[in-house]
Amino acid sequence: MSASLTVYPNRSQFFKYESLYLSCDDNRKSSEWTVKAKTVRGVSGCGRDWGSLQSSSCIINEVYSWNSGVYWCESTSGETSPEANITVTENNVILESPVSPVTEGESVTLRCTAKSNSSSPRASVFMKDRSPVGAAIMGQMTIPAVSKSNEGLYMCMITGLGASVESWLTVRGRDFGGFTEVVTRVFSGHDEEEVEEEEEEEAVSADPHSGLIHLRVIFFLVVVTPYLLSTIFLGLVYRDEAKGSAARQCQSTRHCKDEVQMEKIK
Question: Which of 3, 47, 93, 153 is close enough to 166 for a disulfide, judged by CB 3.0 to 4.6 Å?
């Protein structure tokens, strides 16, 4: 079992001059692990030209742009932990998002933070893969139950201050006893035709557009059709009444009577 890298604060973006704490967590022998990084200055371990090494932990009192890069834990035997991407920016805005992968079903909160000393939240716009996905007056957006569809590049903007850089949010599947959740279908007592019918029904029920079409058809049959039939029926009744009224008026006048007699002679 490899170690895991803990980043505190748990976010992938930092303002210049902020402090950063990194630690290699392993239930066995944590002293065998060292924090390493790959930056514009190359690959090196904590305590050489950056950070202060304390056992398997590393403290960076002030981060700079060149501290941006990939960080991981590495053991004396060459084992490595999952990597973490850290970005140090001189922008006025950063996006606070989890630096480590999040698990499907978990709640994830993204925060848009300004560099200014004011701690009051600001109205923010959040974007995923360059498309708006939400706006928040309090400067944060929560995804109640994250899924693989939420994975992607996120950034945020604050009016008058600017935008953050982008950070990748990784979503991993649930893990049960060391096995990734795999959904399998067991065929028992079903022939191929029944299976095909069930799959077609599932496909139709899973398609929101087909469901919407069905609702429209039902609405037409239940509401519109009776209305059309009643309209046609009333139209026919009105036509018959109009003919009868015209005949009665014709019979009440002498001119009409003469016309009727002439018709009889012919």
Answer: 153
